[in-house]
Amino acid sequence: MFLNSPQFRAETLEQQLGCRVVVKVETLNPIRSFKGRGAEYFTATLEGRPHLVCATAGNFGQGMAFAARKREGCGLLFLPALTPIR
Length: 86
Fold this sequence. Notes:
This protein has helices at 11-17, 35-44, 59-70, and strands at residues 7-9, 22-24, 51-55, 74-78. It is α+β, with helices and mostly antiparallel strands and 86 residues long.
């Protein structure tokens, strides 16, 4: 799911830094964040249908929910009461 994020050379930045710079476009993956990659990796190490619990107000929680659903598991996420809902 997260294996083929496109990569591009940042030539203008390369000139400024004096080295090769490659930018990976993680915003094109299913949850628009690189955090899903870590959640996918973690849940792949679990057996069966995982029951996941995490406390986060950010992209990692979204990644955990995505990974749990993909593996037909259960995900329970705790968010701070003042987390903005978009």
